[in-house]
Each structure stands twice: as structure tokens, then as C-alpha cells.
Fold this sequence. Notes:
Oligomer: single chain
Structural class: mainly alpha
Strand content: under 5%
Helix content: 55-70%
Distance between the termini: 25 Å
Order of helices and strands: HHH
Number of domains: 1
Number of strands: 0
Amino acid sequence: MVYWFMLAAPTGTPPAVITRLYQEVVRATQATRVREAFAAAAARPVSTPPAELAKRLEEEIATWKAVVVKAGVKPE
């Protein structure tokens, strides 16, 4: 299992804003200070394009939904 984080915006956010956020995240993750902070946490920054990230999120939801169903997990 791998942990990962993503930056999300509200549904309906204009595509131009999403593009700008992505560009700024790419720029930020290239900064030495940010890379060093990630490395100190034994992590690495990855800037995934928004469409790919949306697909990954859908896949993760499907994967973990199947695990929850198979395990019979129920809310308390």
C-alpha cells in the first residue's frame, strides 16, 4: 500500500483555474526546499496532470470500495 496526497478544487472550478493551480504545483515541487522537505519525510513529490489524477482517484475509490465490501466493513 502506498500513501499519496492530492490537491483538490471544488466541483465547477473553471478549467483555467485548475490549469493554473497545476502549473503552480509543478513549479513548487521543483523547488529545492520543497524537495528536501519531502525527502526528509521519505516521500517524493509527483505532479500528475489533472485528468490523470482524476482517473487515479476514480480507480482508488473503486479499489478501496471493493476491499470494504469484501471485508464486510460496516459503519458503526
